[in-house]
Structures are given as C-alpha cells and as structure tokens.
Design goal:
Blueprint: H1 2-92, H2 96-102, E1 106-111, E2 119-126, E3 129-137, H3 141-161, H4 167-183, E4 196-204, E5 209-215, E6 219-223, E7 226-230, E8 248-251, E9 257-261, E10 269-270, E11 275-276, H5 279-289, H6 294-309, E12 318-323
Antiparallel strand pairs: 1-12, 2-3, 3-4, 4-5, 5-8, 6-7, 6-9, 9-12, 10-11
C-alpha cells in the first residue's frame, strides 16, 4: 500500500515537472516570437527609413544636378556676353597698328585680369600735338569695363570734337563728364565715390614740348640711363575735385623713352616670398631694358611678370605703354 502511494506521489511530481517544463518552453517560445517580431519590425522600420533616405538623396542629387546644369548654362551665357563685351571694348580702344601709325617706336603691354578690363589706353593726333592716355578705372571686370568705354568716348569728344588740348583742362572736363554720367549732379549725395586714375600727356612733335597731368598716375622718362618721374596729382576723377589739376611741362628729345602704366604690374604678388613686384623693381627693370627694341621690351616685361607670379592669381588689370617719340626740330 505504501509502495502504491509512493509511486503515485512520484508520478504526480513527474507530471508537475513536465508541466512546468512545457510552461517554461511555451514562455520561452513566446518570448522568442516577440523578440523575432521586434527584430523584424525594427529591420523593416530601418529599411523603410533607409529607402526614404535614399529617395531623399536621389531627389537632392537630381535637384543639385539640375541646379548645376542651370548654373553652367548661365555661366556660359555670362561668359559669352563678356566675350562679346570684350570685342566691343577692343573695338573702342585704338589698335596697336593705329598706335604705331602715330608713334612708330612704341609698344603696349595690355593684360586684363578678367575677360574685360578696367584699364584702357587712348592715343590720337591733332595737328602737331600727340595725345597719349593711360587710365585705370576703379575695379576690374564688368564695372571697370563700363567706365573705361565711357572714358574713351568722353576723350574723343573732349580732344577731337571740342579741341581741348591742355592736359589739366582735359582731365577736369573728363572728371565732370564721369560725375554727370554716374551721379546726375556733381554735388549730389548719390555721386559715385569711386572713379578713375589716369595719366595724360601731350607731345608737340615739332618742338618736343611735353605736358603731363595725372590723377594719381605718374610718368617715367629715361634719358642717358637716368629715370625721371613726373608725378600726378593725388586725386581721382569721378569724385568732387579738391583742387584743379596741374600741368607739368618738360622737353623730350629723340632717344628719350617715355613709360605710362597702371598699378597692376607693380601690385602683382609672386617671387620667392610671395610679395608685390613693387615700383622699385619695376623701375630697375625699365632701366635695364630701355635701350632694347620696343617689341623686345614688351616681351621682357611680359616674361618678367609671368616668371614673378608663377602660379599666383593675377590680382589686377595690367598695362604698360612704352614710347620713343620722334621730334622733328632739335636744338
């Protein structure tokens, strides 16, 4: 009887253990399903987010590609317009052939920073008077080019049409013309504050008399291996003038070399220490080469600044004009 009771107890305990095991397995299985569900849901959510992110990136890339195409098209249009504007500017400037027809012994080194330039030059002849102009409009590129074209047209009217032949008077009239063009009234508060630096000289080819007036621009004359600087007044055109311009008079002789230039050459960075070329080095260069033929001088000036700047970006428009006038009457 005792054995039967003991066996029943053992069977009962075995059933309870088996029941507990099944319950535990069932709980583990349910937990496993929950974990699998959560993992699958998380992966599905991550996949949805990834797909959305990819779609957003594709949309962004497509938008960037369209914008890049639009910018490239606009850039081509702007460049084409600038190239066409450069043709117009070149048409207004005296050709080198025309320059040499008036001054056979001469050269022009002209190197815009951009497609169009704020530097410009001008030459013409009235009777026995030769007029040479070198100018640097504020800025470079399009703003400078617009002002340079206006300057050329004003010079044509002042010197050729109105027949003004005194350099200081020409500059004063030119300055008023620029002020009227951009400001409406010379004393207007809205007057353009920037303007034009310029050097203008007249040479009487009969007597050799040279008159020079400048707005910040100097003029160099080399004779007997000595360089003489004629300085301009320290005021620009296009802003209210503090005083009248001054005429500087001297005599030039056959064999003299005259140089007119903008500041772009001396301001170019380069060299071993990445510094400006500077006027001291520029004057030394001119003294070294002034006896060479004009075309050789131009080539050396171009090579010198190219070797100096190397990989440095050009900082401004460059212009150097060299002249060896021929005087008909000598003392």
């Amino acid at each position: 009887m005792v054995d039967i009771v003991t066996q029943n107890i053992a069977n009962t305990e075995g059933i309870e253990i088996l029941g507990n095991s099944i319950y535990h397995y069932l709980v583990y299985f349910i937990l496993l399903l929950i974990i699998v569900y959560l993992v699958v849901r998380y992966q599905k959510s991550s996949l949805v987010k990834t797909r959305k992110l990819l779609r957003d990136k594709e949309t962004a890339y497509e938008k960037i590609a369209r914008q890049r195409e639009e910018l490239e098209l606009k850039n081509r249009n702007i460049t084409d317009s600038l190239v066409y504007a450069s043709y117009m500017q070149e048409a207004l400037l005296p050709s080198q052939d025309f320059f040499r027809s008036i001054l056979p012994e001469s050269f022009i080194f002209y190197k815009p920073k951009d497609i169009v330039s704020g530097d410009f030059y001008w030459v013409d002849k009235k009777d026995n008077m030769i007029f040479i102009v070198a100018a640097d409009c504020t800025g470079h590129g399009v703003p400078g080019a617009f002002m340079s074209m206006i300057g050329v047209e004003l010079l044509n009217k002042i010197i050729l049409d109105q027949e003004v032949n005194k350099p200081s008077e020409i500059l004063e009239i030119l300055g008023k013309g620029i002020a009227r063009t951009f400001g409406g009234h010379i004393d207007s508060d809205s007057l353009l504050k920037d303007g034009m630096d310029i050097g203008l000289c007249s040479i009487n080819e009969l007597t050799g008399e040279l008159q020079f007036a400048g707005a910040f621009f100097p003029l160099y004359i080399i004779r007997d291996n000595k360089l003489t600087e004629i300085k301009g007044d320290r005021q620009s055109l296009g802003i209210p003038l503090e005083s009248s311009f001054k005429d500087n008079r001297t005599r030039v002789m056959n064999g003299d070399i005259i140089y007119m230039f903008s500041d772009g050459y001396a301001d170019q960075f380069g060299g071993p220490n990445n510094k400006k070329f500077m006027y001291r080095r520029f004057r030394h260069l001119l003294l070294t080469i002034h006896k060479f033929p004009m075309e050789d001088q131009k080539a050396i000036i171009e090579d010198s600044i190219t070797n100096w700047s190397k990989d440095e970006e050009q900082v401004d428009d460059m212009m150097v004009i060299g002249i060896s006038p021929k005087i008909k009457k000598q003392d």
